[in-house]
Structure formats: C-alpha cells, structure tokens
Known about the structure:
- By secondary structure, this protein is an alpha+beta fold.
- It has one domain (18-85).
- The chain is 50% helix and 14% strand.
- It is built from two helices and three strands.
- The chain has helices spanning 23-44, 53-73, and strands at 14-18, 77-81, 84-85.
- It has a three-stranded antiparallel β-sheet, with no helix packed on it.
- It starts with 13 loop residues before the first strand and ends with a strand.
Amino acid sequence: MTDQPDFPSPPPRRFSFESYRFYRLQVIFTFLVFGVGAVLLLTSLGSAKGPPVWFAVTWIAIAVWNAYWFLFRIAYRLEVDGGTFR
C-alpha cells in the first residue's frame, strides 16, 4: 500500500489565457477599414448609383454594434488566481 492518494492532483491555482500577440491591432485595423466603408456608404447615398438608404443604415448599425462588442466587451485576457476570475 502506498501513501499517495488515488485521485488526481488539483489544478494549478493560477493560470491564464491570452489572445495572440497582434489581436488588438488586428481588431482596430479591421474597424478602421469598416469606418472607411461607412464613410463611403454615407457619401454614396446622394448619388443615383448608391445603395438604398435602408442598406446603408443597417450596415453602419451592424458595424457600430460589432465595434462596441469587439473593442469594449470581448476579453483578450482571462486569468484565474485562486478563487478570483479576472
């Protein structure tokens, strides 16, 4: 008989996950491109060959919603330290 228990050892008390190195730069660059697209959509509304107004408004609303989530709501780093989740 051994002195060691038969159950596995507990997980480490501190560990973390972090997005790849250029995640923030990639997201910011992507939304800069979307911003240029939004400006182009707004300027093309006055021309006869531009998209319908409903399309431009919907596209810009979706781009703003995604920018809000990706820039302010989605975590790029998660860390567990004992019983604390950061």
